Amino acid sequence: MTLYSRLGIAALTGAGILAADVTYTTTTKFEGGTLVDMMQKMASMPLMGRMMAGNRQAFEDQTYDVYVKGNKMARWGKATSMIYDLDAGSITTINNAKRTFSTTTFEEMQQKMEQAQQRMKQQQGPAIDFDVKVNNTGQTKVIDGAEAKEVVIIMTAKQASAQGQMVVTTHSWLIPYSAGSREALDFQRKLGEKYAFLLSGPAMGGSGQGVSAAINQAYKLENGFPAQMELEITGVITPAGPMGGSGGDPSAPMLKELIENGNFAKGAVDDSKFVVPAGFKEEKRGR
C-alpha cells in the first residue's frame, strides 16, 4: 500500500470519527455562593417570589440530554430545551411546560445582551477581560471508570468594578478522549469561538461573563475532555450583599457551580431531536 493510500484511508477514517453523531448528559449544580443565597431568599418572599418566578429556575440544578449531529446540538431538559444550529446561526428555546418556543439568531441575541450590558454599565462596568493562569496539578481521581487529571484555571479580571475585582477559579477534571467526547468538544469549541456568551446558560449579569469565560477556557484545554468543572467566583460583592448573606465581603464566594459531563455514546441521532415537537406554538417576542 502506498503512502498516499494510507493517508487517504486515515483521512477518511478521521472524517468518519469527526462526523459521528454523539449523545451525552450534562448536569449543572449550583452549590452555593452569595448570589445563589440571595436569589433563594428573594424567591421565598411572597411578592418577590412572584416577580422573579421566571428566573427562579436559573439557580436550580439542571440536567440535559445532549445530542450532537454535524453542526447542530440539542439540549433536552425537563423545563426547557435548546436547539443550536451553527449553519443557520440560530438558537431555538423551548418551554416544555408551556409548550411554546422561540427562535433567535446568535447576532440578535448578542445585540440584546450588549444592550442589556449598556443598561447595566453604570453598575457593572464594561465587558471583562481576564488574565489567565493554567496549572496542571498532577492530582487524579476516577470518574465513570476513567482516570481524570486535574487542571486548575485561575482567571483574574484585569479591571476592577464597583463590586470588586472578579476572580474565577476552575478545577477541571480531564478524562482521555473518546470519539464521542471529541465530537462534543469540537462543537463546543466552534460555539465558543464566536458566541462564548452562550456557554454560561442563564444570564447572570457580570458573573455570567465569568462563567462563560471559564467554560470556554476549559474547553480549550488540549489534554482531555472536562468531565467535571468545579467553578467558583470570588472578589465580587453581590448586589444587596447583606440579603445574600455576604455582608459585603468580596472574599466570600459569589457563586459555586459544578458542571458534569458524561455517558458519552456514539450512534446515529434521529433528526427529530433537532425539531420542535408538534403542537408547540411559536412565542413572538418584541424587539
Kindly describe this structure.
- A hairpin with a 4-residue loop joins strand 5 and strand 6.
- This protein has one domain (23-62, 106-266).
- It has helices spanning 3-18, 34-44, 46-51, 106-119, 121-124, 179-195, 205-219, 241-244; strands at 22-32, 62-69, 72-77, 80-85, 90-95, 100-105, 130-143, 146-157, 164-175, 225-236, 255-266, 281-282.
- The chain is globular, with a radius of gyration of 20 Å.
- Helix content is 30%, strand content 37%.
- A twelve-stranded mixed β-sheet has the order 7-8-9-10-11-1-2-3-4-5-6-12.
- It is of the alpha+beta class and 287 residues long.
Give the topology:
Blueprint: H1 3-18, E1 22-32, H2 34-44, H3 46-51, E2 62-69, E3 72-77, E4 80-85, E5 90-95, E6 100-105, H4 106-119, H5 121-124, E7 130-143, E8 146-157, E9 164-175, H6 179-195, H7 205-219, E10 225-236, H8 241-244, E11 255-266, E12 281-282
What's the short story on this structure?
The chain is of the alpha+beta class and 287 residues long. Helices cover 30% and strands 37% of the residues. Residues 1-18 and 240-247 have low confidence and may be disordered.
Q: Could you state the order of secondary-structure elements as H and E?
A: HEHHEEEEEHHEEEHHEHEE
Structural class based on helices, strands and sheet pairing: alpha+beta
Annotation field: number of helices: 8
| Percent helix range | 25-40%
Counting structural domains, the number is 1
Radius of gyration: 20 Å
Largest sheet: 12 strands, mixed
Query: Within the largest sheet, what's the order of strands?
Result: 7-8-9-10-11-1-2-3-4-5-6-12
What best-fitting shape do the alpha-carbon axes yield?
A: globular
Low-pLDDT segments, ≥5 res: 1-18, 240-247
Instruction: For the record, give the distance between the C-alpha atoms at the N and C termini, rounded to a whole number.
Output: 61 Å
Give the strand content: 35-45%
Query: What average pLDDT do the residues reach?
Result: 77
Strand tally, please?
12
